[in-house]
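Aggregate trends can hide what the representation actually does to any particular protein. For completeness, the protein is quoted in full, as a sequence line and a line of structure tokens.
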Amino acid sequence: MKRYNMMQEKKEITTDVRYEAQSATEIVVRGIKEAIRKGNLKAGERLPNENELCELFGVGRSSLREGLKILSAQGLVEMRHGIGTFMSDGENHAVYDTLFYHLLLASPDKENVEELRRIIEIDILEQVLKNYNRNEKERLLLKENVQELKSIAAESHYDKERLLKNDMAFHKLLAKASKNQVLRNIYQSLIDYIHLSIAVSHRRQSAMRVLDSHQRIYDLIEKRDTYSIANVVSYSLQPWEASDN
């Protein structure tokens, strides 16, 4: 089985990534993406072990594992318990057949990503309202999601990982409720892509603020309030957009 020795590229990979990264986790994510862009990592190849990767990026094990989890969620790597971490061969991840594979590697300007998310979320909510009579199941799941978020926000020391999981699930449920398969796939891919920045935004906003945003979105859907979509989306995105500034 082929295994690329990224240690040969250590200085080249880490220098630029360290300058731009905002966290140790992001150093890992950007560093591996940079290796992919340069052709140093190929589909199906095994990554160096944890010790080598920690030394390569100058990060601890927890940050390394968090970075690999993000890359796994995005479909770029596969973590095989007891064996190691491998570059995805693309067979189990639709992302390799979409434009979002290139988005994952391109690290586009944040303003462009913000604009894209705003446009797509407005479209998603318009489709949710348009298909209101067809998405009762998804709307019930959204209600349950908001109720779970209320319990998280009520805790004085809430679990941030649980908050992130709830947040991601909420947006993916919105995608399902749109009843538009193409729009759903695009939006879910986008949410996976911005997974890290969503996690960062949670450092600058409380769980109550997340709850407030999601409650407004849910109430808008139940009231079928088409006219408030743009304002509600703008309010929801404020903490996330600020997290990159």
Observations:
- The CA atoms of residues 24 and 58 lie 8 Å apart.
- The mean pLDDT is 84.
